[in-house]
TrEMBL record, chain A:
The gene is leuC. Residues 8-460 form the Aconitase/3-isopropylmalate dehydratase large subunit alpha/beta/alpha domain. This is 3-isopropylmalate dehydratase large subunit. Keywords: 4Fe-4S, Amino-acid biosynthesis, Branched-chain amino acid biosynthesis, Iron, Iron-sulfur, Leucine biosynthesis, Lyase, Metal-binding. Its EC number is 4.2.1.33. Pathway: Amino-acid biosynthesis; L-leucine biosynthesis; L-leucine from 3-methyl-2-oxobutanoate: step 2/4. Its cofactor is [4Fe-4S] cluster. Binds 1 [4Fe-4S] cluster per subunit. It catalyses: (2R,3S)-3-isopropylmalate = (2S)-2-isopropylmalate. [4Fe-4S] cluster binds at residues 349, 410, 413.
TrEMBL record, chain B:
Heterodimer of LeuC and LeuD. Its EC number is 4.2.1.33. This is 3-isopropylmalate dehydratase small subunit. It holds the Pfam family Aconitase_C. It catalyses: (2R,3S)-3-isopropylmalate = (2S)-2-isopropylmalate. One of its GO terms (biological process) is L-leucine biosynthetic process. GO terms for cellular component: 3-isopropylmalate dehydratase complex. Keywords: Amino-acid biosynthesis, Branched-chain amino acid biosynthesis, Leucine biosynthesis, Lyase.
């Protein structure tokens, strides 16, 4: 048999039917649902007199709109509250495998709660009306972000209309140095291939530096596959995957576990499998990364400089860099280390898991937020992450450093709730998008790892975290 | 869904790469539970000088005169010229909803982000990919000629330039069919309900732990 890539194995095992033009129906195992992209889908379903095909595939939570403080006061913004209550009502009416509503002890960011509850399992297809669904590919799942019409389509038919993607292998060989994390790896990858480099591809991340990552780290990498334009990121199953899932609430147990593990062990690209494109990075050359612009590909090492548009030939590109520098309030050739920081955000589906908080706490321990930094928000990814962090005393480290310790949610990653930047403020953020206005109108986002964010908080500017470890 | 067959429309040029869906429709407007009414807030942060919030009367807000869609010559535009990677970022379908509500029916560019591209077809919008050099030519002509229009024919997969020259484009056969007829793809998929059920049963037998 011809050697297959992991993507091809997952595609074939979910292929219900394929038309002559290549359009296929793919069976969906897990449907993650949140409040922002689902109301119109449920409404459409209702208007057409349809019912969900398989409610036991649905795992739902409220995360985008929920406040991260004063939970006893509920959701103050009436429009946000209506949206969250609409999800409550839809799940009440139609049902779900499980629902973690606002203030539930297991509520959290949809891409954190799926894996930590074992609702994301290797070999599944996972969809969600959220582009960062690529996160779940860390478990060798074929995981796609979809639009609301597709949410409705999956609710009604348990299938997604798809065309097969091309395959790309991004291999990160060697070992990263101390202080260099999964976030730096993925930002370096995006810096290399660009924000459209992965368009039309499913990216498998491999190589020794990826294999050495924890599941949390692999989720960070796959999470940002979409920032490289790829709808899906993938990492093959190995012991790290299996060990993470053992004993999780929705993971199988007993004989079913053994049977599942035997299958999951086959979820890797075969030796000799051919990819449409291969990109190789040397892990030892990756330094802590900081984005300076308004697209995740506008990134440099912490010891580097902001580019000079005068040295760029392509007019569209030059124009983009000029526009970004103007928006970000930066001058050409400015050292990254001279960019001041007004706010710090540690959280989001990219970097709000326990390991991320441990990395940040390691830097914050025994240090204080710089006086020039207005606010440092630490927002755990879920209620379970929060409790684990508190059991380890991490919250005390943050509070002693002058950071704020909040309730779980998407928070200032997209600023749909009250957590946001003021115009002109620079933010060291562990989230995934530095688009104009993403964290608040006029806000200036710099994407970094949790350790780099904590370092920026204590120094009031971007510094090389390797000097603080 | 509205069908799309033919359009002879006024063209507006949005000359920047990597336009993300946060820019197309900012997050505060995503709190709506409806599919309609997003047009006045399309490109909100670029289009207006003040900060927009849901429920405002946008006609009274100060407009940014430099933003291309505010210029008198582009009022009523139905075709938007775009650069690389238009629609990147968030999967929010509110982006095509806002474009459609504003009056845009066709987008022409060298590349689009995957999820956005897909979402367009579900809402009667036609995103057309043509080579970057041709897009450049259209940008130049559009800026140089007030009242610049293009005629788009989905059936024959052609764009007709004012000088009569044709630009051919590719479109997926299935998407084309759905768009031409305004078909609801859920209805189409449910024609294969038996096949889906059979597949599901087989999968359940083989991997029961995915169905727990």
């Amino acid at each position: 048999m011809k050697p297959q890539t992991l993507y091809e194995k997952l595609w074939e095992s979910h292929l219900v039917r394929q038309q002559d033009d290549g359009t296929a129906l793919i069976y969906i195992d897990r449907h993650l649902v949140h409040e922002v992209t689902s109301p119109q889908a449920f409404e459409g379903l209702k208007l057409a007199g349809r019912k969900p095909w398989r409610v036991s595939s649905i795992v739902a939570t409220a995360d985008h709109n929920t406040p991260t403080d004063h939970w006893d006061e509920g959701i103050k913004d009436p429009v946000s509250r209506t949206q969250v209550e609409t999800l409550d009502a839809n799940i009440r009416e139609y049902g779900a495998l499980t629902y973690f509503p606002f203030r539930d002890e297991r509520q959290g960011i949809v891409h954190v709660i799926g894996p930590e509850n074992g609702a994301t399992l290797p070999g599944m297809t996972v969809v969600c009306g959220d582009s960062h669904t690529s996160t779940h590919g860390a478990f060798a799942c074929l995981a796609h972000g979809i639009g609301t019409s597709e949410v409705e389509h999956v609710l009604a038919t348990q299938c997604l209309l798809q065309k097969k993607s091309r395959t790309m292998l991004v291999r990160v060989d060697g070992e990263v140095g101390p202080g260099v994390t999964a976030k730096d790896i993925v930002l370096a990858i995006i810096g290399r291939i660009g924000t459209a480099g992965g368009t039309g591809f499913a990216i498998e991340f491999g190589g020794s530096a990826i294999r050495a990552l924890s599941m949390e780290g692999r989720m960070t990498v796959c999470n940002m596959a979409i920032e490289a334009g790829a709808r899906a990121g993938l990492v093959a199953v190995d012991d790290t995957t299996i060990d993470y899932l053992r004993g999780k609430p929705y993971a199988p147990s007993g004989d079913a576990w053994d049977k599942a593990v035997a299958y999951w062990r086959t979820l890797h690209s075969d030796a000799g499998a051919e990819f449409d494109k291969v990109v190789v990075l040397d892990a030892s050359e990756i330094e802590p990364q900081v984005t300076w612009g308004t697209s995740p590909e506008m990134v440099a090492g912490v010891t580097g400089r902001v580019p000079n548009p005068a040295s760029i030939d392509d007019p569209v590109k030059r124009d983009g860099v000029e526009r970004a520098l103007k928006y970000m309030g930066l001058s050409p050739d400015m050292p990254i280390g001279e960019i001041p920081v007004d706010q710090v955000f540690i959280g989001s589906c990219t970097n709000s898991r326990i390991e991320d908080l441990r990395e940040a706490a390691k830097v914050a321990r025994g240090r204080r937020k710089a006086d020039s930094v207005k606010r440092v928000l630490v927002v755990p990814g879920s209620g379970l992450v929060k409790r684990q962090a508190e059991a380890e005393g991490l919250h005390e480290v943050f509070l002693a450093a002058g950071f704020e310790w909040r309730e779980p949610g998407c928070s200032m990653c997209l600023a749909m709730n009250a957590d946001r930047l003021e115009a002109g403020e620079h933010c060291a953020s562990t989230s995934n998008r530095n688009f104009e206005g993403r964290q608040g109108a006029g806000g200036r986002t710099h994407l970094v790892s949790p350790a780099m964010a904590a370092a920026a908080a204590v120094e009031g500017r971007f510094v090389d975290v390797r000097n603080l470890l | 869904m509205n069908a799309f067959k033919l359009l002879d429309g006024l063209v507006a040029p949005l000359d920047r790469a990597n336009v993300d869906t946060d820019a197309i429709i900012p997050k505060q407007f995503l709190k709506s539970i409806k599919r309609s009414g997003f047009g006045p807030n399309l490109f909100d942060e670029w289009r207006y000088l003040d900060h927009g919030e849901p429920g405002q009367d946008c006609s009274a807000r100060p407009k940014n005169p430099d933003f291309v869609l505010n210029q008198p010559r582009y009022q009523g535009a139905q075709v938007l010229l775009t650069r690389d990677n238009f629609g990147c970022g968030s999967s929010r379908e509110h982006a095509p909803w806002a474009l459609e509500d504003f009056g845009i029916r066709v987008l022409i560019g060298p590349s689009f982000a995957d999820i956005f591209f897909n979402n367009c077809f579900k809402n009667g919008l036609l995103p057309i990919v043509i080579p970057a050099e041709t897009v450049d030519t259209l940008f130049r002509e559009c800026v140089a000629t007030e009242g610049y229009r293009l005629a788009i024919d989905l059936e024959s997969q052609t764009i007709t330039r004012p000088n009569g020259e044709l630009v051919r484009f590719e479109v997926d056969a299935f998407r084309k069919e759905c768009l031409l007829n305004g078909w609801d793809d859920i209805g189409l998929t449910l024609r294969h309900a038996e096949e889906i059920r059979a597949f599901e049963q087989k999968r359940r037998d083989m991997h029961p732990y995915y169905f727990a």
